[in-house]
């Protein structure tokens, strides 16, 4: 392999790894479900008819969740940075890359669990007739992409 072809190969590998890291970081930074969340919040605040006590409780639940979600999103960004460093170091699907993928999956799973805890906490504030509407909206939000 000549020096020129080696440099070209190294440039191609570096560009591929940078693109891959960019995609992974971009996916973690963007929130792919803002419409679903907005639909639930719109339903809660505009269609269900919450009383003052319920509104106060929901606002506190939302505030607490926003803090926790932000913590987990920052953790995911850090995980992606570590994954990018592992990819750069190993130049392949090695043990460090695998460990970083597993680490980020744990954080993603925790975010999903926290989101569901948040949804169930809001649901617990509702009357049975309100909860029925809320449940239908949650199911629609979770199955929207499947249709």
Account of the 3D structure:
- This protein has 147 residues and is an all-alpha fold.
- The chain has one domain: Up-down Bundle (Four Helix Bundle (Hemerythrin (Met), subunit A)), CATH 1.20.120.
- Helix content is 86%, strand content 0%.
- Helix 2 (34-47) packs antiparallel against helix 5 and helix 3 (52-90) packs antiparallel against helix 4 (95-125).
- The longest helix is centred in the middle third of the chain and has 39 residues, at 52-90.
- It starts with a helix and ends with a helix.
- This is Periplasmic heavy metal sensor.
- InterPro entries: Metal_resist.
CATH class placement? Mainly Alpha
Stated plainly, the CATH topology is called: Four Helix Bundle (Hemerythrin (Met), subunit A)
Estimate the helix proportion, in percent: over 70%
Number of helices, where a helix is a run of at least 4 consecutive DSSP H or I residues: 5
Terminal Cα span? 51 Å
Please identify, by name, the CATH architecture: Up-down Bundle
Oligomeric form:
single chain
Average of per-residue pLDDT values: 80
DSSP strand count: 0
Q: Name the poorly predicted regions.
A: 31-36
Query: Which of globular, elongated, flat, extended, rod-shaped describes the shape?
Result: elongated
Radius of gyration: 21 Å
Structural class: mainly alpha
- The string of secondary-structure elements, in order, is HHHHH
What's the domain count?
A: 1
- Strand content bin: under 5%
Major sheet summary line: none
Protein name: Periplasmic heavy metal sensor
Organism: Tsuneonella aeria
Pfam families: Metal_resist (PF13801)
InterPro entries: Metal_resist
């Amino acid at each position: 392999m000549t020096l020129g072809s080696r440099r070209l190969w190294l440039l191609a590998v570096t560009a591929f790894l940078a693109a891959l890291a960019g995609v992974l970081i971009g996916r973690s930074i963007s929130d792919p479900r803002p419409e679903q969340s907005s639909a639930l919040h719109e339903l809660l605040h505009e269609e269900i008819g919450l009383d003052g006590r319920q509104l106060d409780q929901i606002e506190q639940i939302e505030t607490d969740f926003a803090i926790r979600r932000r913590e987990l999103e920052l953790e995911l960004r850090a995980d992606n940075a570590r994954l990018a460093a592992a990819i750069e170091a190993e130049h392949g699907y090695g043990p460090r890359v695998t460990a970083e993928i597993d680490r980020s999956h744990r954080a993603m799973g925790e975010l999903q669990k926290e989101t569901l805890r948040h949804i169930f906490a809001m649901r617990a504030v509702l009357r049975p007739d309100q909860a029925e509407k809320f449940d239908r909206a949650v199911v629609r939000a979770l199955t929207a992409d499947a249709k």
